[in-house]
């Protein structure tokens, strides 16, 4: 039985309401065990919409997770959207969520390395792991609702995925193509801008938002303070969307 639900129910944690079709209550698809769309996902989708880049373009979504970004691109009228994630759970969730939303998304397992074989793309979008990670992260007690650790852990400086992604971006883009990337300022915005510019792209911040620490950063607040990554008592982070254009 097919039911109509709003996206706020379909993708938990999102306040943006869109009516879509999906299976009935017994078969409702959820974003477990993958990263649930949150503030960063929403900020990226907003930047995608405002940019006007998506309609009638070939789109690549890297680190797709639940498929929310890719599905949003399809809803915006892209010519096609291909989504990659290294996690088989994410691939299954994304495929199911796209089918439930009634849109076509080509979901594949793998990293940007495999995506190179499918390109180039007019637009690349990504919400990659970017959270600075302490050496004792395995001992942390974090609410399971935050999602699996592989969806956000990204090394001591948060750049384990960002650095190779910035370096590979030009190879993924067609001539005049664009990258839209969301990350935390804790992972180094200037580092991303410098890396993208060093690879030959024109890069700038196009959106930003200050948000309170979620469960992951709250659990790491003391470590972030001790390592000088946040001021004492700081419990907010800035998330930004970077746009990089290939000319």
TrEMBL record:
Family under the similarity heading: Belongs to the eukaryotic/archaeal PrmC-related family.
Record-annotated Methyltransferase small domain positions: 41-131
Taxonomic lineage from the root: Bacteria, Bacillati, Actinomycetota, Actinomycetes, Mycobacteriales
Protein name from the UniProt record: Methylase
Species this protein is from: Mycobacterium bourgelatii
Gene Ontology biological process: methylation
Presence of keyword Chaperone: no
Gene Ontology molecular function: N-methyltransferase activity; nucleic acid binding; protein methyltransferase activity; S-adenosylmethionine-dependent methyltransferase activity
Gene Ontology CC terms, in alphabetical order: eRF1 methyltransferase complex
Superkingdom of origin organism: Bacteria
Keywords tagged on the record: Methyltransferase, S-adenosyl-L-methionine, Transferase
